[in-house]
């Protein structure tokens, strides 16, 4: 069977939970042809790429799928690209709040996801969960992790495809705040469908 490294993030921005990691943790150990290797990454500009590097070394995956929270979005959104810019609206969990800094100096403005993001979105819609490909993963830790992972995998000897999926808030996370939500089981089902499509 093939090895899928799948990551979620620790809580950030003052929240006590992160549905991205909760959904990854709730996935079964295998999905279709894939054995899942789950890792929780810190929601920090420094820690996330480091954790990813370590996980890639340990797992030697055939593909990498990163999951993050995009509170405010109503759909599950596979990201088409990561951009080479860090600009943070809020400090990360280490107090780091870069503005207009490159993720990797001297590299191109954008790197494209190398998994079939359109097929993933389609597969999610087919199980009745709203999904669409997103053109922007933001400028915070999630985008930086996507960009730095695509960059690192480009340098790898064998091609390892990777993509990032942002998920909406859950009712538990929203806790009365006015934002669109999706129940955790629907997010988990969407991730299963996305994995089956890669
Ligand atoms: N979402 C944030 C960082 C961690 C997470 O789950 C983001 O979209 O950048």
Attribute tags:
198 residues, alpha/beta, Aminopeptidase, six-stranded mixed beta sheet, two-stranded antiparallel ribbon, 6 helices, 20% strand, globular, binds pyroglutamic acid
Précis, in short:
The protein has 198 residues and is an alpha/beta fold. The chain has helices spanning 19-26, 47-59, 117-126, 141-154, 171-174, 184-196, and strands at 2-9, 30-31, 34-41, 63-69, 77-78, 81-83, 110-112, 162-167. The strands form two sheets. Strands 2-3-1-4-8-5 form a six-stranded mixed sheet, sandwiched between helices. A two-stranded antiparallel sheet has the order 6-7.
Describe the protein's topology.
Layout: E1 2-9, H1 19-26, E2 30-31, E3 34-41, H2 47-59, E4 63-69, E5 77-78, E6 81-83, E7 110-112, H3 117-126, H4 141-154, E8 162-167, H5 171-174, H6 184-196
Parallel strand pairs: 1-3, 1-4, 4-8
Antiparallel strand pairs: 2-3, 5-8, 6-7
Helix pairs in contact: 1-6, 2-4, 3-6
The protein binds pyroglutamic acid (PCA).
Can you walk me through this structure?
It is a single chain. With 198 residues, the protein is α/β, with parallel strands linked by helices. It has a single domain, classed as Aminopeptidase (3-Layer(aba) Sandwich). It has 6 helices and 8 strands, in the order E-H-E-E-H-E-E-E-E-H-H-E-H-H. The strands form 2 sheets. It has a 6-stranded mixed sheet, sandwiched between helices. The chain has a two-stranded antiparallel ribbon with strand order 6-7. The longest helix has 14 residues, at 141-154. Bound molecules: pyroglutamic acid. Pyroglutamic acid (PCA) is lined by residues 9, 12, 18, 20, 43, 68-70, 138, 140-142.
């Amino acid at each position: 069977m093939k090895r899928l490294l799948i990551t979620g993030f620790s809580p950030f921005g003052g929240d006590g939970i992160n549905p991205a990691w909760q959904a990854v943790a709730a996935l079964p150990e295998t999905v279709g042809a894939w054995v899942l290797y789950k890792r929780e990454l810190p929601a920090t500009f420094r820690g996330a790429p480091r954790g990813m590097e370590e996980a890639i070394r340990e797992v030697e995956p055939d593909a990498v799928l990163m999951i993050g929270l995009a509170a405010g979005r109503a759909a599950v959104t596979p990201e088409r690209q990561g951009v080479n810019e860090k600009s943070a609206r809020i400090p990360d969990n280490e107090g780091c709040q870069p503005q207009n800094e490159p993720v990797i100096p001297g590299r191109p403005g954008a790197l494209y996801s190398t998994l079939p993001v359109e097929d993933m979105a389609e597969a999610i819609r087919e199980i009745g969960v709203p999904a669409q490909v997103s053109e922007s993963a933001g400028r915070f830790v999630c985008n930086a992790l996507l960009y730095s992972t695509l960059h690192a995998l480009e340098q790898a000897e064998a091609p390892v495809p990777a993509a990032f999926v942002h998920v909406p808030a859950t009712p538990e996370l929203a806790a009365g705040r006015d934002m669109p939500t999706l129940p955790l089981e629907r997010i988990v089902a969407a991730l299963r469908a996305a994995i089956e499509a890669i």
